[in-house]
Design a protein that fits this description.
Number of helices: 28
Low-confidence stretches: 1-30, 97-104, 524-535, 849-854
Radius of gyration: 31 Å
Shape: globular
Strand content: 5-15%
Distance between the termini: 49 Å
Amino acid sequence: MMKTPSPPLFRLFPGPPKANHKPFTVTLPLAEPPTAPPLGYRPAEGVYDEMVGPDGAIRPAWKTFAGFLSHCSPADLTGRVATGQRLLRDHGVTFNIYDDALGTSRPWALDLIPLILAASEWREVAAGLEQRARLLDAVLADLHGPQRLLREGILPPALVFANPGFLRPAVGVTPPGGRFLSMMGTDLVRGLDGRWCVLGDRLQATSGQGYALENRIILSNVFPEEFNASRVERLAAFFDQEREQYRSLAPSRRGAATVALLTPGPNHETYFEHAFKARYLGLPLVESSDLTVRDRRLHLKTLEGLRRIDVLLRRIDDAACDPLELGSSPALGIPGLIEAWRHGSVAIVNPPGCGVAETPALHPFMPALCRHLLGEELRLATVPTLWCGRPADLARVLENPSRWVLKPAFARGDRDPVFVDELSPGAASELTGRVRAHPEAWIAQEILPLSTAPTLTEGRLEPRPVVWRAFTSGAKEGFSVMPGGISRVSSSDHRRIVTLRSGVSKDTWVLSDGVVNQFSILRSQTVVIRPDRPPGAVPSRAADHLFWLGRYAERLEQTVRTLRSIVNRLAGESSEERLRETEGGVSLLRELGVLADDVPLTALRTHLGELMSDPRRPGSVPRLISFLRFNAAGARDRLSDDTWRIFNRLERDARLGPGHFVPSAAQEILDTLVLDLAAFSGMEQENMTHGHGWRFLELGRRIERGHSILSLAAAATERASLDESVLVPLLEICDSTMTYRRLHFARPALAPVLDLLVHDRLNPRSVARQLELIRHHLPLLPHGPGGSRETAEVAHFNGFVPNLDEVDLPVLAATPGRLENVVPTLCRRFAGKLEGLSDEFTSHYFSHAVRRLR
């Protein structure tokens, strides 16, 4: 039965301008529109060009920006490119952030020339995207409900039941809020006729929104006047509406809804945007290990206990959601999540099972589905597509295979599409044989010459094939469309496949023909007395990462200071005294476990070079930095942009040039790294909220510093029995040289040095000071409702600290040789006790066994 047409429910530009937002007025003198393409741009022949029309004239939407480009000098353009690269680097924008074991990241590729769309063109596309979202939502509701489309023969059963995206555990479930589709990404391409058409849909873990926002931030900084003069529609209102939509999906219960963003973790290729979007929307960023299902309810494992999650915005695919019901990897999924969702206690965006509608095999059926379910004609066409599961379509494909691009019908992202005209006769025959054997598993799309967009390449503009990903989000009524999105261009003019992995991204500007909405998601119109996310609700995993971030920051600093102490002596004038101090510094380096005992001094320079440049060597500076970044990435949504800039600078500043090890060059690098680490320490103390996350970072730092000082003191005491020259580099490494000189006005001696580094509470580098700070933080840690304050870690701490206070250095020093015999054993034993305290934290807070519900 034909349904009556639905009234138009979408809003192209979400929300009117706020009352206190003044209309934006351009005050800059506009450049004259160019009469010819700027920077010698020559469009490709035989395809639609986004900037230049077939008559060679600049298209109307591009005239303002092209005018600026025409008047842009090579030096100005070079400067803007450098600014864009610096901003990307400072913001830490990456794709595939940890693509190898050492944590190397790949910078995000952004072209500074945007894709520009006129307002009238945008409205037409947005209307088609809004309709498409309503249509796919109706299809999903039917396939997981009455399945009339299958019973009435509108969709063939093989298209659904052969699709691994069809999840039987999701059948019969009405999601909280009644909506199956809350977020959609749609890849669009433009044909020769100038009309945009759909290449594919992304409903599971839709990526690109965070990158689109980051692209906009970069370009609006690189081209501020040009951006404002072009009257580009802003993105903030779309994200604000998206955030409100998530809250509205929460199952009804008292209190504010808790929305969390689920990420696969720092190893995922788009982890940057997960963390970026979570922070922008004010959502906690969680991994599967942070979540647990109890009594068919989803909870976040925090330091204080379990906290209820109402809405889960997931960035993992359907099949990975729940290892209990879907047989997926437990490393990504949450056991019991499907049952909690079925029970209606948690909303999932998008719900499990939406992947069935991602298949391009659905495209040939879309016009009929639109008429049947919505009573409307399809407004936004798809790229001509055939599903080989239909005999007629299979015959057309096999009749002339070279006309088509063949793709798996149901596999997403596993394989690139195959252009049959590029295959050898043998490979083409083998491929068509596979299609004949399993026709339902293949689709064919017509080879469509993609439109080209101007792309900045080595200081000149060149045409590149472009694909535009637009985003559609649920609203209170219907759907809204982001005014823009993310575009990608091919990395070369002959490449026919454009993806996030292989392409170069572009910001997408939608021009306004009215007043630009100046709404900002960062400016709230309402004073919120109690924030949605209590500052103490720190996930156990995030606290674990912060704890080890503190430990690795301190470990890196101690390693850098020890290396610098040795390199300083290699770079200066040689003398017997400096040689003995160098040997003392080497003994301390060995105590840190980064230099073997059998390494001769003649090979020292080689090993120092490796410790400063080889990321595969345990304990090396690059390896420690990679561990530092890994833990920082695990808690990225809790670290400021300035803090992340410090981590980026650490990586850059630690690069030792190739070739022979030169002490003076290494000295400069090590000096800079000490300052970088001091900047991180200052940022941590002065800029980071002093909640439980910061507290665990501090505890990690204090435990590591106390452990390393005790270890160094043990090694120095053993060597001091032969040569007290080791005390000079020891004081340098512990940054206590000036303090010792001020107190004693004499050459370092063992007993007063040990007293300064172990017992002096006024020395910020002493063991006593670290223990004092640990003692201060312990009672302030969360203990859960009704929990005893005498926790295992407190009992452990109280069990060994008094013993250290009882070590009487003057009494030991009064007996010749006793200090050298007793202190190393005591120091190493107390260092082991500090390591045991670290284990207690892990057992109590980070492993997270069954905890009380909250």
